[in-house]
Each structure stands twice: as structure tokens, then as C-alpha cells.
Amino acid sequence: MIKIIVDCFGGDHCPEAPVQGALAALASNPELYIILTGDEGILKQQLAGKDYDAARLEIVHAPQVIGCDEKPTDVIRLKRDSSMMKGIMMLRDRDDIAALVSTGSTGALVTGALVRIGRIPGIIRPAFCPLLPTMNGGIVGICDSGANVEVTSAHLRQFAIMSSLYLENVYGVSKPKVALLNVGKEAEKGDEVRQEAYKLLRETPSVNFVGNMESRDLLSGSYDVVVADGFSGNVLVKTTEGTALELLKKLKTEIYSRWLYKLGALFMKKMFKDLKAFMNYQNYGGSVLLGLSKTVVKGHGSSKAVAVEKCIEQAYKMEVSKLSGKIEAEIAKYEHYEE
């Protein structure tokens, strides 16, 4: 039985989405045990009348809620009874709990996890790694996507090692093709950090490095992992998600603009439905925070129940694959680390 904490407050659709997502995950996986953190009275109201295995679900009362505009350092000191911080402390203190899923404040989650849980030995900085679908039906991981705005070449190499192991062990991608996000594909492109990272990645046997990648090729299917600093990676992910959503809106507007288009759309209804599901980021879970000594998955703030369920599934797969231990073993092969 794998125990996973679900932080039920802080996101746009809380507590409904976390509760519904947790119940769906319980129903689909008999090996799961879910701990909901949040206001006990509200959570019991959400569970009232629902059909679930009560022996595999518990509530931990945490009445405080963290707002997205609150300083992370203040949260750690002043909101220890919040659903997120209570979950982080339980994850740290209890060996029987494997992971935490949250859709709350990113800053508070990263700071709280770093300060209270800590890193895998040898890891310089943990990094977020969300997934996006590719045009050939696969997935691509982007690491980092927001945890580290400023990086060194050593950081980027560790991001590549961690995310490669993640795609290989959790999603079964054999020898993931790793690219470095850059302004051009040529080896000499980019600033000093990118040029040095290029050299380091070529010299890292455990990483299947295939060179630089321009942002327009992210969804091409030519790459399994893209390594970036947190600022560039975050912009890349959100721009891609936003473009996909706006294109769907534009397509819908055009279809309804003429009766002939509407008629044609009737014959393509299933295709449009499949396309919408393919481009919907809710179906791909959240960003795992690679490099922590315990598993943490950050769901999008606007996550609905299906996204929370996928986040729980991600956390479960990470634990089953023993990913943290494999990352520690691989990182230990490199004796020198650059802070």
C-alpha cells in the first residue's frame, strides 16, 4: 500500500477537484491510500454521499489556507496548520507516507519542501519537470520549468540526468533523447552557460544527448526531454499551452461561422473530440519536483479532478519505480558539484 497526501486547499477548484480526483484514484488503484489535508468539516461535506473505500482514506485537519500572494518564508513560519505545510511536515516525519500532491502556491511548495524535506544527496537544486504531448503521440518533459531562474552548466547536467531517469523509469521511454533549449541548433549557440552545458552533456554517459533544440520544435516528437533554466522553461511551457488553447478556440469560432463548416464538423466530431483531449494539459498531470528526498507533485493551479487524479498517478508510479534511489545512485557517479 502506497500512502499519498493530497493538499485539498489553495488551487482554483479546491476542495472539489482534489477530493474528486483522490476518490477517482482510489477507485482505479487498490494499492493506494490517500490522506486529505484541509479543513475537516469542509472535507467531510465533500465526501458526504460519495462511494469510496473508507479504509483507504483519512482526513488530517488543517484549517489554514495559503494564498498565492503570500511570501513563502512567511508561510513556513506562520502557517504550520495550513493544508500544504501540514502535508509537507507529515511527508518529512512519517516513513510510511510516500508522496505529496498539491495544486497550491508554487513558491510556498518549493520553499517548504526544500527547507523541511530536503534534497537527495548530491543534488544541487531540485527542478520541476512537467509533461506535454508530442505530435507523434508521445510525451516530452521540460526540466526545469520554474524552480530555478538562474542556473549553471552543472545544474543543467543534473536536470538532464534526473529527467532522463524520470521518463525512462516512470513512462518506459528507452534511452530518452535529451536536448538543451537554446536559440539555435548549432553547438556554438547560446551564452557561456549554455555552451558549457552542451560540453558537459556530451560527456555524460547516462544522458542520450542529441544537441540543442529551438523552442518551435518542442512538440515535434524528436525529443523526449528538454533541459532549460527555470525562467525559459516556464515561458516555453506556458506559451505552448496557451497557443494550443487559443488555436482550439479559433477553430471552434471558424466552424460556427458558416453552416457548411458546421456540416463538415459533424462528420469530424470524433476527430475534434480526440484533438481536444490531446491538447488539454489537464490530461497530463502536474510537474514533479525532481531531486527531493521525498516525492512531490505540483498540479496546475487550475487543475480539475482529472488533473489531480493524474498527479496522484504520477506520484504512485514514481514510488513504484523507486526513482529517488536511482537518481541518487546516478548522481553519486559524479564526484564534483558546482554550487
Overview of this protein structure:
Helices cover 45% and strands 17% of the residues. The chain has twelve helices and twelve strands. The model has no long low-confidence stretch (mean pLDDT 92). A seven-stranded mixed beta sheet has the order 3-2-1-4-12-11-5, with helices on both faces. Strands 6-7-10-8-9 form a five-stranded mixed beta sheet. Helix 1 (16-28) packs across helix 11 and helix 4 runs parallel beside helix 5 (106-116). The radius of gyration is 21 Å and the shape is globular. With 339 residues, the chain is of the alpha/beta class. It folds into two domains: 1-123 and 291-322 and 334-339, Isopropylmalate Dehydrogenase, CATH 3.40.718.10; 124-287, Isopropylmalate Dehydrogenase.
